[in-house]
Amino acid sequence: MESYQNAPVHYVESKSCRAPNQVGSLLFEMLCSQQKDFQEVVFLCIGSDRITGDSLGPLIGHKLSKEHLSRCIIYGTLEQPVHALNLAEVTAMVHTKHPNCLLIAIDASLGSKRHQEFVTIRKGALAPGLGVKKKLPPVGDISITGIVNLSGAFEHFVLQTTRLATVIQLADTIVSGILIAHRQYFGTHRFSLLDFFHSDSDSERFRSFAKFTPLSAASSRILRTEAGNLYKYSPCQIFFSSGVSLRDRHLSETIHENNTVRFHMFHSTYPLM
């Protein structure tokens, strides 16, 4: 688990019409900037379905499990919640079964009146149970919380009397944001450079390179590896543009008369399909 003790906390107002896009963009950037080479994403949705305010995590897990997201595993649902009594056991099992995963922890939290009904997202581990004075081990590479009510005295009572509408609003915002980030990071087709240069049809090559080809962030590592191997198969030169944000990437390829292949990375204001 990477250490991000000083990582900033991002607040998103769940009632804003732009909230899902904001959550999705923040999560996408955090996925792209991870140092670890993860093979899959595990969502650990923490909470109890027996307490309204604490049911945010299981509700999100329930919604995500219905989406059947590729390369994503969900722990913590309404049917099988992950809570204080089994958190350590489930966390140990996750690290055993998914050693190369990126762990995203999700939980309800209490906060100030100014941030009530806000979503928080940050790099680094989540401290579950902190709002109700429970000491549980930190968990996660990325943490997402929904501030369901006010912090202060009588935290257990506050969670029990939290409005269900608040929990549903936060859950819908977080789930929508996760789906946007997933589509941007995993949702595009992989494009093989080696297959392109082994093609028998020159005209098909030209057509393939003449159009925009969306490239997911997950595929960029494969692309760079293949580009490094191209010298073994084709007399061409590879150029990657630099200084471009990881956010909303597209790959444009053009083939030139001198058989030089040039790759351009540029911004897009639309989600990758």
How would you describe the overall organization of this protein?
The protein has helices at 19-32, 56-65, 87-97, 155-160, 164-186, 193-197, 202-210, 217-229, and strands spanning 10-13, 40-45, 72-75, 101-111, 118-123, 142-150, 212-213, 238-240, 249-255, 261-267. By secondary structure, the protein is of the alpha/beta class. It has two domains: 10-186, HybD-like (Rossmann fold), CATH 3.40.50; 193-267, no CATH class. The protein has a six-stranded mixed beta sheet, with helices on both faces. The protein has a four-stranded mixed beta sheet with strand order 7-9-10-8. The chain is globular and about 40 Å long.
Summarize the structure.
By secondary structure, the protein is an alpha/beta fold.
In terms of topology, how is this protein built?
Layout: E1 10-13, H1 19-32, E2 40-45, H2 56-65, E3 72-75, H3 87-97, E4 101-111, E5 118-123, E6 142-150, H4 155-160, H5 164-186, H6 193-197, H7 202-210, E7 212-213, H8 217-229, E8 238-240, E9 249-255, E10 261-267
Parallel strand pairs: 2-3, 2-4, 4-6, 8-10
Antiparallel strand pairs: 1-5, 5-6, 7-9, 9-10
Helix pairs in contact: 1-5, 2-5
